[in-house]
Write a structure and sequence with these properties.
Elements (H helix, E strand, L loop, with lengths): L9 H28 L8 H21 L15 H23 L6 H6 L6 H29 L7 H28 L2 H15 L15 E2 L2 E2 H5 L3 H15 L5 H25 L3 H4 L1
Keywords: Cell inner membrane, Cell membrane, Membrane, Transmembrane, Transmembrane helix, Transport
InterPro entries: ABC2_TM, ABC2_TM_bact-type, ABC_2_transport
GO molecular function, one term: ABC-type transporter activity
Length: 285
């Protein structure tokens, strides 16, 4: 069959040029965010590894030693390590938190730029998320090497599954970032509310403890606690990451369905809200 004919009308060429410029702008802003994070830092990218390691030491002492919370035994891996159990979900969670925190202020922090020139505003929150995503890639690579060396736990074969989960989480987080960054232009309380909401959200996600600690024999409005608990979309990501990197098995179809549905819905809603609020941003910022 003949290849589709490429149109070269002035309008089509302008559309292609605009798309290319948007991608270039997104890349430049992402690199700018990365450079600014480690500017004048002696350790640079090392901090992206040290921060989660320090967090693991603290959380392990509090939850594993003092509160005696025990991790599940990896099935079928047989691994039983609270540090690995925690890290495989803590790193994606920290990406989620830092991305949303920085994306929320990304438009208001660039007020002078927005009022002077026009460019698609969505690149600001998206670049903030992408910068943190690149950091997550480095952290996850280091994690795989560390657990292989220290625990003899080889999860390299599951990298394709982890990359799929990370890609879906990236889109999910971009959707949320578009919502909160746009809303924060009009209601500056959003950034403060987000800071308050992220802490309980973490404790309502099975990061520090296994899912089986959530009771099934108690109900609220006729629905058991665990069913209500799993309405939190981050529960599915936590379980899926743990399945791949801790248990060494493929996440269930139910988990994949929940993750894909959450991603599609949140991204679609985020884009719709952002497009609705974008026209007056330069006036409100």
């Amino acid at each position: 069959p003949a290849s589709p004919r490429v149109r070269w009308t002035p309008r089509d060429m302008l559309d292609r040029l605009a798309g290319r410029l948007q991608i270039d702008l997104l890349v430049n802003l992402t690199l700018r965010d990365l450079r600014s994070k480690y500017k004048r830092s002696a350790l640079g990218w090392t901090w992206s590894v040290l921060n989660p390691l320090v967090a693991v030491v603290v959380y392990s002492a509090v939850f594993s030693v003092f509160l005696r919370i025990q991790p599940t035994t990896g099935d079928p891996s047989g691994l039983r390590s609270y540090a690995v159990f925690l890290l495989v979900t803590l790193l994606p969670w920290q990406f989620h938190v830092t991305s949303l925190t920085e994306a929320t202020r990304s438009i208001t922090a660039n007020g002078p730029l927005i009022t002077k020139i026009w460019f698609p505003r969505w690149v600001l929150p998206t670049s903030a998320v992408l910068a943190r995503f690149l950091t997550l890639l480095v952290e996850m690579a280091v994690l795989l090497v560390l657990i292989a060396v220290l625990e003899g736990h080889f999860a390299f074969a599951w990298i394709p599954v982890v990359l799929m989960l990370m890609a879906l989480q990236l889109l999910f987080t971009v959707g949320l970032a578009l919502m909160v960054s746009a809303a924060n232009v009009y209601f500056r309380d959003v950034q403060h509310f987000l800071g308050v909401a992220l802490a309980p959200w973490m404790f309502l996600t099975p990061i520090l403890y296994p899912l089986n600690m959530v009771p099934e024999d108690r109900e609220f409005l006729g629905i058991d606690y665990r069913t209500l608990y799993q309405l939190n979309p981050m529960v599915s990501w936590a379980k899926a990451y743990r399945n791949a990197l801790y248990d060494l098995r493929f996440p269930s179809a139910e988990r994949w369905l929940a993750i894909v549905m959450a991603t599609v819905i949140v991204l679609a809603v985020g884009l719709r809200i952002f497009r609705r609020l974008e026209p007056r941003m330069a006036e409100e910022v």
